[in-house]
Specification:
elongated, alpha/beta, Rossmann fold, TIM Barrel, 16 helices
Length: 481
Amino acid sequence: MICISVTPTSRTLAPADLLNASRHGDLIELCLDHFLKEPDVADLIRMVDKPVLVSCRRPIDGGHWTGSEDQRLHLLRQAIVAGPEYIELDLEIADQIPRFGATRRVISCTSLNRPLEHVAAAIDRCIRSQADVVKVTWRTDDLDAIWPLLAAVTQPHPVPVVGLGLGTCGITFSLMGRKYGCPWVYAALERGMEPCASQPTVWQLREHYRWHEITPRTRFLGIIGFGASENATARVFNAAFERMQKDVRCLPLLPGDLSRLPAMLAGMKINGLVVDSGCDSNLGRFAESASELSSTTGHIDLLMQRSSGWKAETTLLEAVDLAGRTMLASEKWTGRGSVLVCGHGPLARAAARYFSATGAAVSLGAPSDNAASGAARVAGVRFTPWNAVYGLHPDTVILADRDLKPGSARGEVNPMILRERLTLVDLTAYPLPSEFAPEATARGARIIEPSTIFRAQLKLQFGMLAGRKLSDDVIDSAMSH
């Protein structure tokens, strides 16, 4: 089930929030701690035909209650008399509010800063406080924090246990909870209505990640990173897997301790990882082998498990090549003329080495001359000091570090570097257009659109992972939502 949390502040507007939530969720959490004035809970419950869970959380539990503790206890006692399906009580007050009628008690334990210690003992205390359901909440900033939360909700207990992951990887827990039998997961109706920071929306769960299609038999494809690239990749690949009638769905991940990652992936039976190009997670230490480009430069955007272990690959530069061939109507455009690569990170090193290998005369520069000099040595290309890059007249400019910004201040890229008929590969906000795009257009430069590169990369990655072609109509349909 999906439990949609609603956080109305107005008694007048609360009915609309509840009705909207009832159309999209299986259970509705009515958060009383957001109301500016005390609501009539009984009237609100009667307005919807879905079961309602009533909560009123303190700030130390992630809520917004600003009144006294006596007032909160009084509000919760009144709420339970109204007859909701569930009422949430934190463990500290559970013994002060007796069972009443048919309302079931959700007893909660929360840690806003780190995983709970002695989780099993905390769950036992909740059960002894007459819990019908136990709720465990803590921060899930990476896979290491998710793992014990998942164990807590999936191990056998006398009563059901639900979990709520706070923070970046909350959506990861929600998807894993679906596969591994969590009674329900939490979602917000829309952005701006989350009771907890970074809580996924019901639209993310259903439209991007196809939560409702996940079963205990579903296999996950991991996507490392959170952002525009990860969301779009999940939408496209999930649509493609559905078209193929394959029970595989995407799972966003952020690794913690890399030494523990292989065992976790094996436990989840994940044998493929798509890596956001902007994700700096040192995954090279995790792979047993790598392609020449990945091993030399450290840039990785795909990991696949082989019989000999995990292998790292780089697909983005080949995607740039393919996109440029279409736009420039040239099969060998990467090897012609001179190329300036701006940046010093793994992607910049990979871009310089790739273009150099095709025959181009490549120079590499960055605001930090020391870092750029080292990157140029790794890539095997010419180093150009930052104050000298504007004297070059390259045929192609590749902006390859995400922290590059247009401007004339120290450390910025002056747009005067862009000129008419120059080819620009802008990866600073990939796969989205960046602040450089308007300047490049105004100056007559030819831009290889990041969206075109992204489509080519999706096709390459899907082909390597699934052994099947990814059709344009699947991409168009998924990206239009």
